[in-house]
Amino acid sequence: MKIIYFIICSLFLVSCSSSKKQVENIASEPDFMLAFGSCNRVDLPNLLWDDILKANPDVWVWGGDNIYADTDDMVALRAMYNEQKEQPGYNQLLKSTDIIGTWDDHDYGLNDGGVEFSAKDASQQEFLNFMNVPDDSPLRNRQGVYNSKIYEIDGHSINIILLDTRYFRTRLTVDTETDKRLKPNKYGEGTILGDVQWKWLENELRTTTAEFNIIVSSVQYLSKEHGFEAWGNFPHEVDRMAKVIADSKAEGVIVLSGDRHISEFSKTNLDGVDYPLIDFTSSGLTHAYRDFSGEPNQYRVGEVVFTESFGILEFHFNTRTVDFKIVGDNGIVLQRIEQVYE
């Protein structure tokens, strides 16, 4: 739509011998551009906002860990949010671009925290302040920051569904047998979303008429073998999500995630769904897992990116195509995949 990147063909990207249809998708301007990212510290250089501004997205989506506060002191939390708002590049984005998002543990206030965090209600209000949510919004009286927003574009629509994987999330199981931090709970034990949010999500997907439905989860949905936080720590919730997506018949469901300080694409086929489910992880904006030496992910497509980056999704409605890009400093496309949703 507003910026054209040079594309390097490789085995896991679109082949240089791609069909004419695919080549046209890459070369044409998108009808809608979503940019997103996570894991952003105010005490480190915010080096990517100029690149995000140059991309000129239609919406910026915060994927969580938007600041690193880790506190139940609301004065300190508010000060850090305000510092981020005053960061020159982000401040310019605020003035030019629609901004929505969710939180993760470090802006929630408790590392790996969930339902047990005593300051979660006060923290929610500070998050909503950061997101410039009006004082009279119904979101101010809802438990949890889950929400959705529909974008209408020339007779087409995209529904962005923002999940809260913190407010209701129950106990994790520490792994005392291996060098991993966590292991999956017993099947059926615990919840990520809680009953009320699950019912809300089921209704969102069942009633949507959007051509694309973007589910924003602060933690990874597909990748689950690394031993850190993920949907895989609640295997029954993974299965429930797959069933909800399939039963809903919602079109073009895509998952966006963060948290890991790496960026990668994961992809699988769900029973009853006639398109692959992609989980696009983008993390982090100001710091990355630069000592990354490998980890298993049976769903991975391509390679892991472990430098600072953000994500872009370019939507082409006429061909029902989405171009997924991991973008680094100076606007360099570090990796990309393309998916047609027929």
TrEMBL record:
It comes from Maribacter litoralis. This is Alkaline phosphatase D. Gene3D superfamilies: PhoD-like phosphatase (3.60.21.70). Pfam families: PhoD. Residues 49-268 form the PhoD-like phosphatase metallophosphatase domain. InterPro entries: Metallo-depent_PP-like (IPR029052), PhoD-like_MPP (IPR018946), PhoD-like_sf (IPR038607).
